[in-house]
Amino acid sequence: MAMTARQRAKVSLYVQAGIFVVAVAALILAADWKTIGNSVFNFAKIGPMFPDIFLVGLKNTLIYTALGFIVGLSGGLLLALMKLSTFPLYRWIATGYIEFFRGIPALLVFIAFGYGVPLAFQVSWDVTIVVMVSLGMVASAYIAETLRAGLQAVPKGQMEAARSLGMPQWRAMVTIVIPQAFKIVLPPLTNEVILLTKDSSLIYVLGLTASQYELTKFGRDGISSLGAGLTPLLVAGAFYLIITIPLSLLARKFESRTARTKR
Amino acid sequence: MNDVESNPRGTVKAAGVSLKDLRKSYGSNEVLKGISLDVAPGEVVCLIGPSGSGKSTLLRCVNLLEKPNEGTIHVGGFEATDLDVDIDKMRRKVGMVFQQFNLFPHLDALRNCTVAQTKVLRRSQAEADKVARHNLERVGLGHLADRFPDQLSGGQQQRVAIARALSMNPELMLFDEPTSALDPETVGDVLAVMRNLAKEGMTMLVVTHEMGFAREVADRVVFMDGGVVVEEGVAEQVISAPTQPRTKEFLRRVLDPTHIEVVED
User: What per-residue confidence (pLDDT) applies to A221?
Assistant: First the structure.
């Protein structure tokens, strides 16, 4: 008996759902639940992580991310303006910087600024400075590209209108073009913050004192000290989600708002 | 001619414009092939011609949005083509209205009219507000001062753009096809505002396809084609009794687009 298109679509949907259910069931049956209970969901033993993972870890992760973002945003804006400059030297410097820092793992940057630079210049940097510089310099490279795209998305007529009212180039940029560009890049910029939040964990390569621990460090320490297997990492991961999910929701809200105000 | 003169025709302070042998090329494409044009203070001049004739480029050269390759431009007391000229200072005296309005979408109508007053002319916010409201009234939009550009129709946006330019107290207004992007029913409101401005004695240089407006409001009409001035003269005469074949051809197409010519042997 021939099926109509709608019937075929319905059958296809049932088949897909069936495959999904079977796959999940297979995973559940194949897993070693006793071990998982002891080493992943072993919440009975993680008491000692609290309240420090919250009071110190979450706080430090937020501070490191914020510092990195502030440096990244200022550096990114500077690089974006350099990349759009009519002066070739500025463009070359900006392009070189962006390609370099986007191309190497952030971990290497942390090691470079945590050990290499202090050694080369015989200075001792506080962990906060290292995070700020390392995270900030990597973030600058990514944010620069985002902002450049945003600046270029502002119609040329905006700059012309501002200039024709007697505004100098820099004033037109600051008052007219940059505010509009920021509105355009808010969603991708929020994504950058989410990436930064997770990258702040790379600070673990430096020797940290207890008051400098951030979420991942708490998780790693918990693994070796609590005897609850990987459960502490699960807890640390949950804390990251506490930061990043609201940010995602915020980004989505910005996105729908800019979509609405655009004609 | 180039200095600001007392204007017998109206109430506003008006500047004259003088262009000499203006040339402009994009690569090997010469868009302006040596144009000279004088506009007296308080005079209204309409630039007409087919697209690609260079009339918009000429207009954009006057406030140096385009830099001419050769020739001189005098506006008011400024020589725009002098390399040492303070171009921002000169542009304060020259209002510009664009085909696509170019209102600032992140600012409401009032702020669109005040931002350059406070940032460029250093007026206080209170004074700038007062000037802006006066000019929004002048274009008939005093009641929409708190609307954002995307909440206004095309015609309303263009009138805000005119109010924005007027809020700088310009002595010359440049209009670059101000009604070409508008719905037909809102064209009239914009033209009415421009007609009033002309009556007040503003110097106006208008690139337009509105022949009715040109005939009624312009003192002079300049017909351009292929980067040169083909014909210029009193508005009525150029539009009703052109002497050059190219002007005749252009006007016949514009005034009667559905006309089909019957070629007889």
Answer: 87
CB contact, 8 Å: A258 with chain B? no
Q: Which residue has the higher pLDDT, B203 or A35?
A: B203
Going by DSSP bridges, is the β-strand pair B220-225/B228-234 parallel, antiparallel, or unpaired?
antiparallel
Question: What is the mean pLDDT of the segment spanning B209-230?
Answer: 94
How far away is chain B from the Cα of A152, in angstroms, using its nearest Cα? 16
Kindly report, residue by residue over B65-103, the tens digit of the pLDDT: 999 999 999 998 889 888 888 999 999 999 999 999 999
Run of H or E including B205: strand B203-207
Please say whether the beta carbons of B57 and B70 come within 8 A: no
Q: Which of A163, A166, A176 sits opposite B104 (nearest CB)?
A: A176
pTM above threshold 0.80? yes
H/E element, B70: strand B70-75
Residue B91: its chain A contacts at CB < 8 A? 163-166
Number of H helices and E strands in chain A, helices first, is 13, 0
Interface mutation vs chain A, best among B62, B88, B177, most A CBs within 10 Å: B88
Q: Is the ipTM of this complex over 0.85?
A: yes
Q: What is the pLDDT of residue A26?
A: 95
B-chain residues near A261 (CB < 8 A): 105, 148, 150
Q: Which residues of A touch B165 (CB under 8 A)?
A: 164-165
CA distance B255 to B257: 6
